[in-house]
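Q: Given only this backbone (285 positions), what sequence would you predict?
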């Protein structure tokens, strides 16, 4: 057998061997279609509700939340440090910090820096601001400019410490980010600020929940909120209401989103059961 024949034979053997070891194109597609589990979080106030409703300590409530498959906690400004520590000891990472800086009134530098420090000290890289409000539902162009300017100032400061600044579509007609039009205008005016897509809040504005999908390129966090039929302000376990949460989550994943999804059902009188039901629904997606 000459050298050329040997080379041809070796090439054929290698191709056959690699075909055994490597997945087929079909298998590659099947593998790619397997979804990575969602990173689920919960509001710290929900953990407090569970502790009160179940008659247990905050640490015990956090452990119950973790057992339900929740991995993170969105911390509301003002939560006691020992409660944050208890949640972290239970296995809940700090997913985001939420602050209310009231930029319509001024810029409190110490308060703003404390928000960022709270995130950094807990290994968190996101602060969501409810930046301020108009005096009424009527828009105020001058106040809009003030609130945006102060939000940009905060974002620049936070960025120096590796923290993203975010705003959400807020369900209050006095908010400069209420509804898709106002939210888009705010984000356009503050290009360094990311978006928290609250799946239930567009409904509160009389808009379709999917309205926020056009903001997916700016989306850095999700609040998964469902609404009961006929109640655009109510709350229920995710997957049990009228908001197309599964469709929105699927679109986010298809767009490459891999961040936190914070479950939200403020006002639930059976919070632990809501958390379990929401987590079960979302884990199945």
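A: Predicted residues:
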């Amino acid at each position: 057998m000459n050298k050329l024949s040997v080379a041809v034979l070796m090439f054929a053997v290698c191709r056959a061997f690699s075909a055994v070891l490597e997945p087929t194109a079909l298998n590659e597609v099947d593998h790619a279609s397997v979804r990575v589990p969602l990173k689920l979080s919960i509001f710290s106030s929900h953990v407090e509700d569970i502790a009160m409703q179940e008659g247990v300590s905050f640490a015990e409530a956090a452990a119950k939340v973790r057992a339900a498959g929740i991995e993170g906690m969105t911390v509301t400004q003002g939560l006691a440090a020992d409660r944050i520590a208890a949640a972290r000891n239970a296995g809940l990472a700090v997913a985001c910090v939420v602050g209310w800086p009231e930029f319509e009134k001024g810029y409190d530098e110490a308060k703003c820096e404390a928000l960022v420090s709270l995130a950094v000290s807990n290994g968190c890289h996101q602060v969501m601001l409810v930046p301020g409000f108009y005096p009424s539902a009527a828009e105020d162009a001058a106040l809009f400019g003030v609130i945006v300017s102060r939000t940009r100032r905060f974002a620049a400061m936070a960025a120096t410490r590796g923290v993203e600044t975010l705003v959400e579509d807020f369900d209050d007609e006095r908010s400069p980010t209420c509804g898709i039009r106002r939210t888009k205008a705010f984000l356009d005016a503050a290009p360094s600020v990311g978006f928290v897509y609250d799946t239930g809040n567009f409904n509160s504005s009389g808009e379709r929940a999917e309205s926020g999908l056009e903001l997916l390129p700016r989306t850095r966090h999700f609040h998964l909120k469902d609404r009961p039929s006929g109640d655009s302000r109510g709350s229920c376990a995710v997957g049990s209401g009228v908001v197309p949460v599964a469709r929105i989550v699927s679109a986010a994943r298809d767009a490459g989103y891999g961040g936190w999804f914070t479950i939200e059902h403020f006002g639930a009188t059976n919070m632990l059961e809501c958390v379990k039901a929401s987590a079960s629904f979302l884990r199945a997606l």
